[in-house]
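Fig. S4 source data, part A: sequence.
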Amino acid sequence: MSLIEDELAKSFKGRVKFKRFKEDKSPSHYRSIARLVISKAPETMVKITGFSSGGKHIAAHLKYISRDTDLPLENDRGEIFTDKKEIEGVINDWVEDISSFKGRKKSRDAMHLMLSMPKGTNPKAVHDAVRDFARKQFGYNHEYLFALHTDTPHPHVHLAVKMQGFDATRLNPRKADIQEWREEFAVELRNQGVAAVATPRKSRGVVKKSEKAAIYRLNRVDKTHKKRVAKVTALQIKENADELIQEKKGRKLKQKPWEDKIKTTQLEIRESYSNAIKMLSASPVREDKKLAKELKGYLDTMAKELVTQNHEMKQKIYDDIAASRKDQKVKDNEVNKKDIDR
């Protein structure tokens, strides 16, 4: 790998060490990734939505992903089941097999994955990409079933994988695995002709963590949900409000090591970008010089200030207080005007 590719890899790949999936990278692999990122190619989404414990639980999940046997299911052998009786038979086979597992009563017997792409992505390409992804990642040792859903604007596939493999070893997914799977999924999508990338948030200058689904659902307010606040969110609001009070009084706040770590990481990413831009600019290859200019433009658009969830929450509290004071001032002026009129 060239020095330019090494430097770009620091920005787009991170420090994840992949286990099984080995992509045959071309000498300009990370240049291609850079071009995709600059062109704002969509990011893949891979998420563990849960686990099944026991036959009843897995039966309920398989019925859900097959829309109560209305949608086709495909397995690790490439067999596609479309008939209701066939699908019910496959589900029953899984229930019997999982019920026969010996171990803890509440052990995780199946992992639920969802692989998704944004609105406008070809659903067939998503389906076929998941087929190749699952075969390479799990097919060597684990049984799985998957189904394509197109009932929402973004096409997505639900994939159920048996935790226990043919050799009796069990899956033990970790945070790093998610990034590996995202990258694998992106590779398979590109093989299907779909522009897709799977860069870490830090590579895009994003430091704000995504809100957990359970917390999002609790905090959601719409026609079908009354206003409520998750306990963890309420605690965050209180902590940030207390910090605003301390700042107002001129007191020193507690050190936050994680914010220092985020700043350090972002400085490292920017340094990698800058080094790659210098190398590309010095290259005799015309395409490299063009990429250097485009990459510099992309770097200039990345946020320079550290904006975390806590920063946004503090700003909202401050804005709410300012709005409340403004409303109170308007009310007071109206009262004073009435008194003068009287």
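Fig. S4 source data, part B ends here. The radius of gyration is 26 Å.
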